[in-house]
Amino acid sequence: MKILVQKSLTLFILCSLMQGNLFGQLANTIKKIEVNASSNLGKIEPTMWGIFFEDINLGADGGIYAELVKNRSFEFYKPLMGWTVLEQPSKEGSVLILNRQGSNLSNPRYLSVKLDHAKKGNLSLINEGFRGMGIKAGVQYDFSVVYNQLTNPIQLHIELVNAKNEIIGQALIEAINTKGEWKKLKTSFIATATEPKAKLKIWFEGDGEINMDMISLFPQDTWKKRPGGMRADMIQLLADLKPGFIRFPGGCIVEGYDLAQRYQWKKTIGPLEERQLIINRWNTEIAHRPTLDYFQTFGLGFFEYFQLAEDIGAAPLPIINCGMACQFNSSELVPIDQLDPYVQDALDLIEFANGDTTSNYGRVRASLGHPASFNLSMMGVGNENWGPQYLERVKIFEKAIKLKYPNFKLVYSSGTDPGGERFESLNTALRKMNADIIDEHYYRKPDWFLNNANRYDLYPRNGSKVFAGEYAAQSEFTVSPNNKNNWLTAISEAAFMTGLERNAAVVSMASYAPLFAHAEGWQWTPDLIWVDNLSAYGTPDYYVQKMFSNNKGNKVVSITLDGKTLIGQDSLYASASLDTVNNELIIKLVNAANKSQATLISLTGVSKIAQQANTFIMQNNLIDMNSFENPEKVAPKAASFNIKGSSFNYEISPYSFHVIKIKLIK
Length: 666
Ligand code: AHR
Fold this sequence. Notes:
Elements: H1 2-19, E1 31-36, E2 42-43, E3 51-52, E4 83-87, E5 95-99, E6 109-118, E7 123-127, E8 133-135, E9 140-149, E10 154-161, E11 167-175, E12 183-190, E13 195-219, H2 232-240, E14 245-248, H3 252-255, E15 278-279, H4 282-285, E16 295-296, H5 302-311, E17 315-320, H6 340-354, H7 360-367, E18 378-381, H8 387-404, E19 409-413, H9 420-432, E20 437-444, H10 446-451, E21 465-473, H11 487-502, E22 507-512, E23 516-518, E24 529-531, E25 536-538, H12 540-550, E26 555-561, E27 564-565, E28 572-579, E29 584-591, E30 597-604, E31 608-619, E32 637-642, E33 647-652, E34 656-665
Parallel strand pairs: 1-30, 3-14, 14-17, 17-18, 18-19, 19-20, 20-21, 21-22, 23-24
Antiparallel strand pairs: 1-26, 2-26, 4-7, 5-6, 6-13, 7-13, 8-13, 9-12, 9-13, 10-11, 10-13, 15-16, 24-25, 26-27, 26-28, 28-29, 29-34, 30-33, 31-32, 31-34
Helix pairs in contact: 6-7, 11-12
């Protein structure tokens, strides 16, 4: 009992300390902060805050790609993975996987079903979806199958069933004799109930034999209502970030476990049935979170990525393989004298995105429905590659790409870590080469983010720009399954991001990683956005990203405390910018201390300002998180206050992040 009381007391003290209210306000002098709106510390690029997309944690298949059928083409290494065959009585050989290798190299397998006067209950196929299928009442669903058959008409009964096996949507289609030709059969129906764990059931009526492939089910309420498109709720969360760029398709996905599994963009465009799937490298990569049914069908391919970038107003940033597989896995290397096809892929990708419609790949883009250019201006060569082998290869890409497209910008890898021998030698070599943009990654503890808010203050202002291409505060350690997305991780990133913004003259792009995680299918935590089959929510880290991206400005101005740059004195972090288009001064303040801090903020270099300032404030306990039940527990709250003259008192609450927007009057 005594122990229990003591434990509760300790817990109370800890929580109170974290809220900064145990001893009331600690002795606190008023801090004098000055923002000089007429200073100029550099331009903030429109690309400054962007997003990193990779097919990890069921990000694409089972995620934004809205296909509900898992293993629609029977090409998983276990051809019936995701499917159950129910047959009463069971007959040997009535359901077979056949292989037409030779006539269809990218999608050789199909399902052959022999019917013997089938009727309800005799023979049915059930697909389990990706951890079930998220079905919504009132939404229309599109079913399709590619089939052939040589007999009398066969009836296909299509049913969506809920977890209790009750029908919540159905349709009937007739498969007529196709005389051996493969034909597509389609139907649509409306779901009558909402269900997170539905399954698709197909049962047959008739006699004979039917071959089936590409069995598919899509909702019609996709992003922009595109047939076969993306999950609208997930994409909306991306659009709400107003991202400056979108990096795709990864990540380690680009490298592959070995070169055979590397990402090859040319295999991801054109008819779906010709996009050859491969195993997803996250299938077995994380030993404590194996995901054996994780494949890349490439239903979401490079055309769709470019289209997505355009839809959400983000500059596309594809990353391509540089002739090296993941150096944590096979480390497989393409010999230098065999690198040409890889370099050609890069050149062809630029043509695919931008080339006029008379060029080879520009014509392909037009044939897919987009004659206009996608305005691709940059590309990453390699992801987290390092060593002399990387330098040797990337120089070959650079030479070929710059020769043909002199103004095209390249993003270079600086390895996996933001320090150490590998980073230092690569960074030095890349800067000597005058590399356009260097990609730095940091998966570190919250303290690292707080202590490194000044990381770029001494970086050279001229020369290579930095792309903070992957970062996230790890509450436990990198790839720990116990990592949390809580207010501690988010506020430490906010503090660090003030350093990125202050150094926008050096850092031209930044993106949190990974982006998405499915609650039942993740491999890697923490992640920016969590989803299940029916809903999606942003983490505290998401709202921090949104605050920066939605309130960016285009010019950095100085913000000082007692004449010194504000970078962590008394755990206060800050950046300030001007939005010269909307005539706004934007101040960002992070208080990473457990006490409230009183400040007097003076504005210099302004002639007249509007009386009302608008604020967005995030303030929480460090352990607070968002969830499906409470998705906005940690989210910005809007408020406003009045300013008289050119200075104002401002109290910065414990563990809080503030964006203050002040209209400048000319
Ligand atoms: O974001 C998860 C992984 O972390 C990326 O695929 C890789 O680039 C990094 O190691």
